[in-house]
Design goal:
With 73 residues, the chain is mainly α. The protein is built from 2 helices and no strands. Helix content is 41%, strand content 0%. InterPro entries: Pept_HybD-like_dom_sf.
Length: 73
């Protein structure tokens, strides 16, 4: 739902009776807001740690992930 922000989406889910029990965000600080086709070097460096944090959050909620090798498309 690209037209809605996170806050609007959570409000809509609450109205529809489908709000999550908990909301967790995993992110990284941005280096710039320019459009591009690739990740900035700073974001690329933070991505592995963000993925590990996300996996830990999901694991704490009972969701087990399987580690896979990266796709190179």
């Amino acid at each position: 739902m690209h037209q809605l922000g996170a806050s609007e989406l959570l409000q809509l889910m609450t109205v529809l009776g489908d709000a999550p029990e908990r909301v967790s965000l995993v992110g990284a600080p941005f280096e710039c807001l320019d459009w591009g086709r690739a990740l900035s070097p700073a974001l690329a460096q933070c991505l592995p740690q963000a993925c590990e944090s996300l996996a830990a959050l999901l694991g704490s909620g009972g969701i087990d992930l399987e580690r896979r090798t990266a796709c190179t498309n």
